[in-house]
Amino acid sequence: MQLLTSTSSLGARMKLPVALALVIGVIGAILTWLYVGPLAAAGLFIPATFLGAASYFTAGGTTASLVPSIASNIWGIIGGVIALLLVGMSGGNTLLIGLYVGIMTAIVILGALVPLLSHVPGTVLGFATTAAFGLLTSAAALDFALGTGPFTVMVLSFVIGNLYGWVSSLLVGRLVGSPSSDTAAAT
Question: The dihedral of CA 47, 52, 57, 59: what is its sign?
Answer without folding.
Answer: positive
